[in-house]
Amino acid sequence: MVRVTTHTGIVEGYMQNGIATFLAVPYAAPISTANRFAAPRPPTPWAGIRQCIRPGAVCPQIPTYGPVGRNATSSLAAGEDFLTLNIRTPALSGRAPVLVWLHGGGYAMGSANEPQFQTGAFARSGIVEVCANYRLGALGFLPMGAACPTNRGLLDIISALEWVRDQIALFGGDPERVVLAGRSAGGFAVSTLLAMPAAHGLFARALIQSGATSAVLSPHDGQRTTRRFMEALGQPDPAELEGMDIGRMLHAQRSICEESYEQHDFGRDGSVTMVGIPFQPVIDGTTLPDHPETLARQGRMARVPVMIGTTSAEYMTHSTAHPDLASWAQVIALLDQRVQPMGLSGAEIVGRYRQALPGHDVIGIWRAVGGDLVFQNPTTRLGLLLSKYQPVYKYLFGGIGPDETGAAHGAEVGCVWFNPDLPSGGLPPRFQVRDRSFAARVHAQWVSFIQDKIPFLPRGPWAAYNATARQVAHITPTGTQMRSDPFYERCMLWEPVAPGHDGQASI
Question: Which residues form a coiled coil (predicted)?
Fold first, then answer.
């Protein structure tokens, strides 16, 4: 056993393969019925020794969002005391770089306690790794008016970053070398936290995997989600939500999530239709002053080095939700409501993509439009906007196959968290590593960014991404090569944007 005296009490962890491990370390007070929608509060100090040798509770959740969401849903025990950190460190002394990891799950599912984040891969590589849990769904992202802070899930993460700033040195970490990283909704969160003034100065670099800036709502669209959620609950008084049974709230949450994901309606949901998830960060003028792309254009994002990228076939798994998709009319109908926030119609965007990608069939075009709308284009736009003010390193993971096949959403996770000392058989199949040398190379590339402002590739420094040198590190099993960004030109298929639309398509 190994112990650390934190500011709130002694925590006891354990040693595993030379790594000191502390699980479920509280960074904020539990989320009870009395403070579900309040700002995070510091944990209450405890007497004696707090055992931190087992995973803690996860945020309450139930599956939603089709096959991708079902894969992301945690099956671990939920509870109130889930604002916790899992910390693994190579040594309790020294000043090692720190990785703070945010899990994905559409802002409604997932946890930091999942098996793929328990490998200790980064601690083995000399990095203090910190995986954070935060409020999800209605608890974290339902706009509640002036009585409750907006963007509570992100405020939780800011609270976790403040804890890291103040206490990670006790675990051998350097608070001035914190890298904030995440994938999918975790990547969306990192992108949004770059725009939140309260987060500035709490991390020195940002690593965004498959999640740029497409998941942010205007105040008006945020209120649409609140209205729909209240209707699903039978129009209770908002004060009733504090003491309401969490199961009832989760079922109402799932009902509007499924509706938004499966039955896109621009008139009902507004810009929610682009990503299909109703619980998103909301521009409130305070915690989030404006859309991240607007702030990036103005140079008002946190000015830290950024590594950002996607997989090569982000929408390949998403397409399994439509196994019977067979006609252009179906594709147009499915996409029409989703692209209206961009000032386009389904027929117009499908026509443009068919002309640009003549070899694609029906499902290939659907994958291309959906993948570009949610992942590829926002990543390209954000990378170019940030590059005017700070170093940006862009990657593409996986080979590019016909009809938008290749590396699916999340395909890089097993490699990023690869620890050669551990068998991968205990991980979910999609995170199991088959090519160990490839996984080791990918992990080393991530480590190089965490350890240094200029990441290295096997053949030298990683070239920065900008408007005059749109070079990406293309990472495949056969090697990592710098190449021209293959998805850049597809951003042009979305021009011009709708009058008054705030830069969601423009570079």
Answer: none
Contact yes or no for 288/281 (Cβ under 8 A): yes
Q: What is the amino acid identity at position 311? A: T
373 token code pair = 């709308």
Q: How many helices (H) and strands (E) does the chain have?
A: 16, 15
CATH number of 2-215+299-307: 3.40.50.1820
Burial class from Cβ neighbours inside 10 Å (0-12, 13-18, 19+) for residue 48 reads exposed
Amino acid at position 334, single letter: L
Q: What is the pLDDT of residues 25-51, one digit of tens each?
A: 999 999 999 899 999 999 999 999 999
pLDDT at 501 over 50: no
Q: Give the separation between CA 186 and CA 109, rounded to whole angstroms.
A: 11
Six-digit token pair at 226? Answer: 């609140």
pLDDT tens digits, residue range 437-481? 999 999 999 999 999 988 999 889 999 999 999 999 999 999 999
Specify the CATH number for 313-494; select among 3.30.200.20, 3.40.50.1820, 3.30.420.270, 3.40.1190.20.
3.40.50.1820
Distance CA 101, CA 277 (A): 22
Q: 354 vs 50, 89, 366, 371, CA distance in Å?
A: 60, 50, 10, 15
- 320 closest CA partner among 74, 65, 110: 65
Nearest to 4 by CA among 92, 85, 127, 94: 92
Q: Would you say the CATH fold of 313-494 matches that of 2-215+299-307?
A: yes
- pLDDT-derived band of residue 68, with 50, 70 and 90 as boundaries? confident
Q: Is 194 helix (H, G, I), strand (E, B) or coil?
A: coil
What does the alpha-carbon distance between residue 461 and residue 465 come to, in Å, rounded to a whole number?
Answer: 12
Please state, as a whole number, how many other Cβ atoms lie within 10 Å of the Cβ of residue 438: 18
Q: In this structure, are residues 317 and 68 in contact, taking their beta carbons and an 8 Å threshold? A: yes
Q: E strands of 118-263, at which residues? A: 128-132, 173-183, 205-209
| Alpha-helical runs (H) found in 168-211 | 185-193
Q: How many Cα atoms occupy the beta-carbon half-sphere of 77 within 13 Å?
A: 8
Q: How many CB atoms lie under 10 A from the CB of residue 15?
A: 10
User: What is the widest separation between alpha-carbon atoms in the chain?
Assistant: 68
Question: Which pairing describes strands 128-132 and 392-397: parallel, antiparallel, or unpaired?
Answer: unpaired
Could you give the CA distance from residue 102 to residue 85 in angstroms, rounded to a whole number? 10
CB 100, CB 177: distance < 8 Å? no
Kindly state the helix (H) or strand (E) to which residue 507 belongs, with its residue range: none
Give the residue extent of every domain in the chain: 2-215+299-307, 313-494
Cα–Cα separations (whole angstroms), residue 315 to 20, 106, 217, 353, 373: 38, 14, 22, 15, 10
